[in-house]
Amino acid sequence: MRTRRWLKSNGVAVILAFAVQIGSGAGFKMFAQRLPSPESSRAPLLTSLPADTIRLQVRQLRLMDLLESLQRGDTAHLDGTFTGATWASTDEASKQRAQCQSIGSAVAAARLRSTTPTSTSLALLPIYFDNVRILDSAGVGFARMQVRFVSSSGVESVFFVSLTYADSEPRWIHVDGLLAAVCEIASASTP
């Protein structure tokens, strides 16, 4: 009871004092002292890092963009991402299947096959990257990973994939195993 009475009498005073201080500009000036002037030109934190760290973070960002496109079934983005890329022989062999002529069509088929008959919309494709290793050089980066897929029945499939990324052309330039993996998922998934 005493605490409540103290809060009633003193709490209002504290709130009013804070409001007066912010209203007078003193509080705003206190916060503004820690921030650079809006007119100043300040480079983002990323550019102050070493070049190899920047390349690594860009490649990680590209991988997460790829993973999101695979999970969401963004076929146009996927096909655009790999335009002009060379495919390994296993991926080229997978292109012979009707639903696997491109990475986008294979992902669309896999999403259709992995949804349950009771679902009203297409869910995210349960595909994940695991044990990702990014090997970096000044002009080319390599990403090697396990691609894991969990079917609607709970069965997990693991595929090994390797991607090559060029700095001179900010895109994936060589793909080994991704189309074959997604095509296998599209063929093996049970409706």
List keywords for this structure.
alpha+beta, 2 domains, five-stranded mixed β-sheet, globular, Nuclear Transport Factor 2, Chain: A, 5 strands, single chain, 191 residues
Mean of residue pLDDT?
79
Shape: globular
Under CATH at level 1, the class of the largest domain stands as Alpha Beta
- Please give the count of helices: 7
- Computed CA radius of gyration, to the nearest angstrom: 26 Å
Count of folded domains:
2
Helix content: 40-55%
> Count of DSSP E strands?
5
- Portion of residues in beta strands equals 15-25%
Strand order of the largest sheet: 1-5-4-3-2
CATH architecture of the largest domain: Roll
Termini, distance in Å? 64 Å
- Give the biggest sheet: 5 strands, mixed
User: What is the name of the CATH topology of the largest domain?
Assistant: Nuclear Transport Factor 2, Chain: A
Return the string of H and E elements: HHHHEHHEEEEH
